[in-house]
Amino acid sequence: MTYAPVILLIVGLLHWTTRATMMDKLADNKRCGDPECSYVLSMATALDDFIAPDCRFINLRRGQMVYVYSKLVPSEGAGVFWSGSVYSERYVDQMGIIGYFPAVVVNETQKFTEDTVAMQTTDMDFYCH
Ligand SMILES: *[C@@H]1O[C@H](CO)[C@@H](O)[C@H](O)[C@H]1NC(C)=O
């Protein structure tokens, strides 16, 4: 009886680990506005629709405004990916969800800072719920 809370906790943890997926890193390094990557680096507009191929990415619709939070530093030959979230009054459900998208599908319209911090990415940067 006394063990019940512990067992519940373990079951809960197992459930949590099976639901969470550790995905491959898209890059080893990134640039952000601050060490926590909480500053918006810039605003961009989606030039095209982008369908997220897996849970690391976000969907974009052509014309949507995007807040850019980080820019991955691509390894040689790899695509350039940025992370951000969509600003939209029509698709409120997507607001606040941060994910990656190819830099080529957006047009950066307003930069808020030129000062960026270079950092290594961690597994948590590519963690999926
Ligand atoms: C990107 O935005 C700028 C400024 O709004 C605009 O002049 C330019 O034509 C846009 N580029 C593309 C590819 O849409």
Automatic annotation (TrEMBL):
Annotated protein name in UniProt: SH3 domain-containing protein
Domain SH3: 46-108
InterPro entries reported for this sequence: OTOR, SH3-like_dom_sf, SH3_domain
Signal peptide: 1-20
An individual GO BP term: cartilage condensation
Source taxonomy: Eukaryota, Metazoa, Chordata, Craniata, Vertebrata
The keyword tRNA processing belongs to this UniProt entry's keyword annotation: no
Biological source species: Salarias fasciatus (Jewelled blenny)
SUPFAM superfamilies assigned to the protein according to its UniProt record, in alphabetical order: SH3-domain (SSF50044)
Keywords in alphabetical order: SH3 domain, Signal
